[in-house]
Amino acid sequence: MSESAVPECREDPLADLPESVDPQVAGGFTLWFADRRWEWSPQVYRLHGYEPGAVEPSTELVLAHNHPDDRDLVAQLIERALTDREPFSGRHRIVDTDGCEHTVLVVANRILDADGEPVGTSGCYIDLTDTIDAAGQAAVSEVVPEIVEARAVIEQAKGILMRMYGISAEQAFKVLSWRSQETNTKLRAIAAQLIADLPQVPPPRPDVLTVFDHLLLTGHERVQPGKD
């Protein structure tokens, strides 16, 4: 990863999966938009059946390992990521070098450069193969939109923090994570409550940050029981 580029966020991609699903993170990846260059972690190499570094990951290699019925879908996801500079995320099947089929969920976010421009997408493969049956796979399919929605809420809350405190996206996420960990409240709930409380912030004046500080530090108290 280049020194001038920072991940847009590093939240736990598994935090919003159903409790009935017990996925395994199979490793991380990065796709750089400018030169369409892929980077795989050792685990992702092994997921595809290779020793780390044995091949150079590429879009062609990624598509070659997709299940034939899923290949067009993944090609569209990758092209959308490269064209619209959106995260490469979705659920599909891959076939490793031994011919074994794996059902994977790819959860990712954008990488921003120092100017806030998207330069890549980075995330992880979640191997669902050994942990869910057909019914479980249906449950995961249903929850994927919820994951996307949850990430959008977190991004909104990060934007608020960035604006109010004049901090970076990464720093804003660290603030949200801190409140989540300190209060044992889900990150999504903290973010949603912060957004809900925003109308309480008065028009800009010297004491606005004092009010905002109070909302940030007490938001967990207003999260409804059982709200994720």
UniProtKB/TrEMBL annotation:
InterPro entries: ANTAR, CheY-like_superfamily, PAS, PAS-like_dom_sf, PAS_fold_3, Sensor_kinase/Photoreceptor, WH-like_DNA-bd_sf. It catalyses: ATP + protein L-histidine = ADP + protein N-phospho-L-histidine. The keyword Transferase applies. Residues 40-85 form the PAS domain. Keywords: Kinase, Phosphoprotein, Transferase. Its EC number is 2.7.13.3. It holds the Pfam family PAS_3. SUPFAM superfamilies: CheY-like, PYP-like sensor domain (PAS domain). Residues 134-195 form the ANTAR domain. This is histidine kinase. It comes from Nocardia jiangsuensis.
